[in-house]
Amino acid sequence: MSKFIYSLLIFSTLSLTALAQTKPKAAKDSVLYHGTQLGISLAEPLKSFFSPTWGSSVQLDVNLLNRFFPLIELGYAQAKLTNQDQSSRFDTKGLYFRAGINLPLATEGPNAENQFFVGARFGFSSFDYSISGGSFEETYWNDSYMRDFPDEHARATWGELLAGLRIQLWGPISLGWSGRMKTSFKIWNGAHSVPAYIPGYGRNQKPNYDLLLHLYYRLPDFKN
Amino acid sequence: MLRNATTTSWIRNFSLSAVLTLLLVVLQACASNPNCYESKEVLVYCGFYSGETGKAGSIEKVSLRGLDNDSLIYDNKTLSKLALPLRSDAQESVFIIEVQQSSALFRDSLRISHSNNEWFISMECGCIVLHTLLDARAGGAGFIDSVRIVDPEIKNAVTEHVKIYL
Predict the structure, then answer these.
(1) Best residue of A8, A117, A139 to probe chain B, by most B CBs closer than 10 Å
(2) What total number of domains does chain B contain?
């Protein structure tokens, strides 16, 4: 199912690449620095209204040669998950960090204000979490019982491959989305558990998918 | 004019592709399965070996129960290995093994010292108790020659942990 979905995604993004071959293209000049943009995640905060997981993030990217957009991102995520019969609950909130690069495949505007891009991220999070109502089944020696794990701590690293679009709305303001495929590299589990959710990565499954929407503001150029 | 047309095209592409991708992500979320596919059986697997040759073997008419527990784990079975549950409320699990041969009943015990770690697998699966073997020895007055731990980590996987030499 996942392979089918992402084949569709790749097909759609390739189609969009063809659509994006519109003129005029951004000039490939020799100017190294084309500005810095501050991005704020929009979709993740809205999730709090309909999803047990939500958060927000701020990213800073630098436009180099209109071709390379290295960036760093700091985010916060929170999750309150329950199992199907609501007997067990997982709670976490924590910060995460991402660093990576966007590479435009098609651009428009003198500072690549409109662009279709692919990119990669490396993510890290160190976070606390708690589990309540962990159920142990009856065994040969013991009856069934419940137990809480209130003070668990874990760390995780992961990678992301993404494709997305960014368009200029007005002046320094632009809007962008990106579809992401994530995979965890290394997870340092808690003392008594595997974390069900990792801030910045999402549910602890491999691979994982996400759709992010960012609002960007191009910071003023302080050069005279 | 050209700039406006180009920007409009970008906006159209943005909207179309965002909606398509959102749909795909929602489909992906719906495809996730809430069932548990991980084994919750945490057992110590003990193989029988000849004390003289070291070769694996089996014994007939084996009955086995835990000490202070009337319920039989094995009842008059032919076995080449044992799968034993350990106590999660104590640091030692003791098993009584009986072998019926002809009209004689041979009895011995297997005493396993271990540490316990309560482990949450996932929201769907719940919890299990993992163990680390510290020591394993026979009662000393029966048919078991010696006992050796080969893998002390007891998880929810089928692998040989202890060798019992007869």
Answers:
(1) A139
(2) 2
